[in-house]
Amino acid sequence: MFPVPVEKVLQLLEESGFQAFVVGGAVRDILLGRAPREYDVATDARPEELLRLAQRFRLKAYPKGAAFGVISFLVDGMEIEVATFRAEVYGADAHRPEKVDFLSRLEEDLARRDFTVNAMAFDRQGQLHDPFGGREDLSRGILRAVGDPDERFREDALRPFRACRFAAEYGFQVEEGTCAAIVRARDRVAGLSVERIREELERILLSPHPARGFALLRETGLLSTRCRARTAGKEETVPVLPELARLYGVPQNPRYHAYDVWEHTMRVVELIPPDTALRWAALLHDIAKGMPGVRTLNKRGELADYRHEQVGSLMAKEILGRLRVSTTCARRVVWLIRHHMTFPPAKEANVVKWLRRLSPDFKDREELAGAVTQLLTLREADLRGGKVRPEERLAENERLRVLVADILMRVPLYPADLALSGRVVARYLGEGPQVKRVLDDLLQRVQEGSLPNEAEALEKALTGTESYKRFLVHKENGRARRRV
């Protein structure tokens, strides 16, 4: 029933006189017919006893939180967290327990867990232990707190965000009492670190049902809470994501849009492949719509949001920085948002000019190709996510995708793509800034089609440049001075 390394740990504990159970998410996933990502074991053995067992049976093990009763075992290359049955007491830190009491009974350990679907256990023989009705809730797609939901959320303020994440990952409906308790627990969010909240937001983003998770975050008010961040040794509170909550109910011009900004955004996110940068871009691509200075009326007197992509890219930069999204990811997201409204017609000359304009933002053609592919993917989702009569533009987007791939195979966009290296140019002109100027000139001529990308033709063109002529004059003058 379990992988061999897990079986070994369960057997080792049982034969040493201890209780041992697979608990938590692995149980939930097995009952859903999914392959668990990880296995956690709960036992009545204390941390020091676990370490002694590992030493006696020559297994690699190390404390992963010994104060909280957690020891990691490494068995046949697999890491298995083994935790002592425990109850937790939370204090100022809204996620990390202040005190842990070790227990002797499985049911007591399961009682301190967050939701019934996570409060089940399998013993080594595969018998299910389910004191809180988790299996029935799982079969009904219900997410319910274990016991008193207010107490569960007071214990750990990250649990409301986990509820939204489970709704997004598994499609659960959150039970009414549990949902109401999330609203009452919002003041505890101020004690959470921004890094923990960002991690939950990204897991919601990458889930199969992100719109459900973000709807719950908005409905419970979690998007509009604040959390703590530490910068240069100073602690401050920062907003979670109120800019996203603001989009709810913001209307759009019905001539072009079938939904308000929130509904459109959610549809675009769900149409995007589960890539972190792409989904952040989808979530924030219209973040500036409806803002003062952006929302206006067009010549017909209809709603319009001119330059929302430019203002939105600046807003996204601030949001992603505040949430501590990785610099590489944030940079790509901001770029995608800034460019998501401007595309050339699918004609070679226009596309080459467009790619040439975009190319300085990237170090090489591979990076450029990846970014442009993402940009066209975002555009497709944007069109499918609620634009009125998008068929013609979708067909144009597909033609553009094909043409971009073809051009990137044939047309050089960086000096390194030329059949003539900078080293050869330097032999003619000497080292210095003139090498780059000449390479850029040759590159443009190849892109325009007036010069083939062939070493002989490029070298011949090089000897006809003004830079080369000036170099020859300078060289000759130097010889004359030496003769004198």
UniProtKB/TrEMBL annotation:
InterPro entries in the cross-refs: Bact_CCA-adding_enz_type3_sf (IPR050264), HD/PDEase_dom (IPR003607), HD_domain (IPR006674), NT_sf (IPR043519), PolA_pol_head_dom (IPR002646), PolyA_RNA-bd (IPR032828)
Residue ranges annotated for the HD domain, each copy included: 254-361
Keyword Membrane: no
Required cofactor(s): Mg(2+)
Keyword Cytoplasm appears in the UniProt entry: no
GO BP terms: tRNA processing
Protein name: tRNA nucleotidyltransferase/poly(A) polymerase
PANTHER family reported in the protein's UniProt record: CCA TRNA NUCLEOTIDYLTRANSFERASE 1, MITOCHONDRIAL
Keyword set, alphabetical order: Magnesium, Metal-binding, Nucleotide-binding, Nucleotidyltransferase, RNA-binding, Transferase, tRNA processing
Family stated for the protein in its record: Belongs to the tRNA nucleotidyltransferase/poly(A) polymerase family.
PROSITE patterns reported for this sequence: HD
Cited CDD domains: HDc, NT_ClassII-CCAase
Molecular function via GO: metal ion binding; nucleotide binding; nucleotidyltransferase activity; tRNA binding
One Pfam entry name: PolyA_pol_RNAbd
SUPFAM superfamilies reported in the protein's UniProt record: Nucleotidyltransferase, Poly A polymerase C-terminal region-like
